[in-house]
Amino acid sequence: MKKYVIGIDYGSDSARAVIVDAANGDEVAQAVRKYPRWTAGKYCDPHKNQYRQHPNDYTEVLEAIVGEALAEAPSGVAAHVVGLSFDTTGSTPVLIDSEGTPLALKPEFAENPNAMFVLWKDHTAIREANEINALARQWEIDFTKYEGGIYSSEWVWAKMLHILREDAAVRRAACSWVEHCDWMTAILTGNTKPETLIRSRCAAGHKAMWHPDWDGLPGEKFLTALDPLLKGYRERLFEKTETSDKAVGKLTPEWAGRLGLSTDVVVGVSAFDCHMGAVGGGIAPNVLARAIGTSTCDILISSYASIGGKVIPGICGQVDGSVVPGYAGLEAGQSGFGDIYAWFKNICGWAIEQFLPEREDLLDAIIPKLSESAAQVPVEESTVLALDWMNGRRTPDANQEVKGAIAGLTLGSSAPRVFRALVEATAFGSRAIAERFRREGVAIDGCIGLGGIARKSPFVMQTLADVMNMPIRVAATDQTCAAGAAMFAAVAAGLFERVEDAQQAMGKGFDQEYLPDPERVAVYDKIYRRYLEFGAFVEKSLS
Question: What is the pLDDT of residues 306-334, one digit of tens each?
Fold first, then answer.
């Protein structure tokens, strides 16, 4: 009898569900749905770097995509679904009451952005992140040690403190906080109490300064020294975390009914999208897995013998078992990648939006045409130089106050030449990450590309291979995050003993490879040095 699992991936703009045959990973059905309130632009203010999402967007979309996928699947599949797991963006937390209810679900806060989930790319908490870093430097324990030594405004403690300071009504109603990935498993299994709900090792270790060396989260004295508003939060949170091969529980009767599944369906511990995506895309020890989308997330796993006592500075954390249990999980990434291309598309398409708003087809054609034309510009003639910091810098060395910049413009700098410079900038930022790992003694034996850009943009991927001077294999599946979640669901449901076993049985391998061109590699080596010098100048001048 066949058994099926469902992997659910919550991205920045939409969520998708994939139903797969647990024996071989064959996709049976999938469905994708955009978040309705988010798509309408509600609760966000890009000029303030404020990006919020309503919890109802998450639950409504969940019901829709699971229902649509099951409707697409052959008859009888729903009765044989045995496991379900999630991944989400992160850090995307929300303040909750004593029952674990996000405050936006209470009538008095239904339209208050401060009561909603704070999306990963919300940078309103730069001040709070700076304060965390300053206090950690002088504290007897550096709680940022295993998170690269620099706490980011994209992460949970900075975001929650910012909200508590900004909104007195929300502050009075809040009891604790929860990450999006953990809230999904909590509501589906009926364990929503802040003190008892199961917390993801991945989320807590990479974004909440959780580590066994100090018995979990930062101590009460540290948190209250940061701000007395955090008094009592630690005791209403957690000490233990779980890796994503474990089960949280089974679907409640309510959610089994809403999703059209059985109450025997096991729900696995959740994780962040890029970590599960790395597993779905075929990560192996010392292979850099790059989830390339609106931003990038770079994942490595390393054996304990290899990582030894090394603590890697300037990354987004090294956490035991956060990717594959039994290995140290290392995370880095760029705050902007595809978002930078989208920004330039919007610049180029401004006149179309103003005068031909009905011609969305023209807007959609801008990036493909730019890519085609930019690819024809010889590297030697690509005199425009750009920085990939339009959304701040995640790694190496997080700094959300830096800004993007473009130099070398002339009256002959065409849109394709500027676009090529932006693509090169994202590749240079990628190289800086790889070089940080290597400088700290972490081997990189290969690179794999995951996600939409990896599969759809040969120009971007070839530029990456040339700049990084590394062959890049592209995962064959379009939905690596959801596929990874499905693999974890199969392990949590007991169908496989280890994540590696699920990868071997369910993985789809690679179907493209980009090889570096030696001539372009040599030219890019020189331009990369200019990129580093330009970045140092801009950071010093504009920060």
Answer: 888 889 999 989 999 999 999 999 999 99
Q: Are strands 287-292 and 271-272 parallel, antiparallel or unpaired?
A: unpaired
Q: Look at residue 61 in the predicted model and tell me its pLDDT.
A: 98
User: How far is it, in rounded angstroms, from Cα 347 to Cα 390?
Assistant: 14
Q: Which residues, other chains included, contact 428 with Cβ-Cβ below 8 Å and sequence gap of 6+?
A: 388, 467, 527, 528, 531
What is the rounded CA–CA span in Å between residue 16 and residue 537? Answer: 42
Contact in structure between 88 and 15 (CB atoms under 8 Å): no
518: Cβ contacts below 8 Å, ≥ 6 apart: none
Q: State pLDDT tens for residues 2-39.
A: 999 999 999 999 999 999 999 999 999 999 999 999 99
Instruction: Tell me the sheet residues that pair with 461.
Output: none
pLDDT digit string (tens) for 509-523? 999 999 999 999 999
Q: How far is it, in rounded angstroms, from Cα 89 to Cα 139?
A: 30
- Residue in 69, 34, 68 with CA at minimum distance from that of residue 53: 34
Q: Element (H or E) spanning 81, and its range?
A: strand 81-88
Q: Nearest Cα to 263, choosing from 77, 84, 67, 490?
A: 84
How many Å apart are CA 71 and CA 404, to the nearest integer? 45
Helix (H, G, I), strand (E, B) or coil at 431: helix
- pLDDT value of position 90: 87
Question: From the centroid of its chain, how far is CA 494?
Answer: 27
What average pLDDT score do residues 187-195 get?
Answer: 96
User: How much is the pTM?
Assistant: 0.92
Sequence-distant (6+) residues with CB within 8 A of 208 are 91, 155, 156, 157, 179, 217
Q: Which domains does the chain have, with CATH numbers?
A: 4-271 (3.30.420.40), 281-336+436-517 (3.30.420.40), 338-432+519-542 (3.30.420.40)
Query: pLDDT tens digits for 453-503?
Result: 999 999 999 999 999 999 999 999 889 999 999 999 999 999 999 999 999
Q: Is 456 exposed, middle or buried (0-12, 13-18, 19+ CB in 10 A)?
A: middle
Cα 537 to Cα 49, 383, 402, distances in angstroms = 24, 18, 11
Q: How far is CA 108 from CA 1, 92, 194, 340, in A?
A: 50, 22, 21, 37
